[in-house]
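Hi W.,

Here's what went into the run:
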Amino acid sequence: MHGESLGGMAASYVSRKDQRHQVDFAFIDRTFASFDSVAFWGAGISTMTPKIMNKSRFKSSFCFLRRGTFSRLLGSFVTRCLKIVTNWKDDNLQSFVGIEKSQAKYILLGSDPVNDNIVNDLSSLKNANTRHIIHEQLNTPLKKRSKFALNLPNHLLVDEDVSRLILIFKSGR
Amino acid sequence: MNLIIFNYRGYGRSDTSTSTSFLARKFGFLNPLDVVKDASVVLEYATEKFI
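Here's what came out:
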C-alpha cells in the first residue's frame, strides 16, 4: 500500500480498517498529520520563515509579542476559521498509529523537510508521530497533549542546538 | 503481489465541479473523510476483482 500526500491519509486509513487482508508493506509518503496542523503551521510559519532557524530572531518581539507566540496565535486563529468553515474532522495520526496495531508487517514513513512546500515539516505525519511517541514515553495525560506542538519552552531545534548535539555525539558523551 | 497506490499530488486531479459539496464544487477542496471513504470503495473493488 502506497499513499502520497492526501493519499497517505487514504492509505493509512485503509491499512488500519481492512482486517480481511493482511497489508505486508505500507509506505506513507510525505503526508500530513491533519488538516488542522497544516493550517496551523502553514499560517504560523509564514511569520517565522526563514527566521525559525535563527534562535536570536526567534525570540525577538513582534507586535509586542514574541515571534513564536505570535505565530501560534495566528495559527490557532486560522485553524479555528478552517474548522468553522469546513467542519472537517480528520486525524491521520490516529489512523497511522492504528496500523501498528493491525497486521501490517512493515511500515515506512516518508517525509521531505527541505523541498516540500505543501506539507511543512512541522505539520508532517513524521513530526506528529514523533510527538506522539514522546507523549507515550512520558505518559503525558491526554488533556495536556497538544495536537500541534510539544508544550515545552523552545522545543524547536535550531541550528545551534543541532551543532551542539553533533559535538556531543562526536565527543561520545 | 498486489500494490495499491493512492496519489493525490502532481499527477492531475479529478473534476470536482459536479460535486454536491460547496467547497469541492467551488474551490476544489476535498473533504478528507470523503477521500478515505472513496479509498475504502477502491479497496473493495480491487479486492473483489484482483485479490
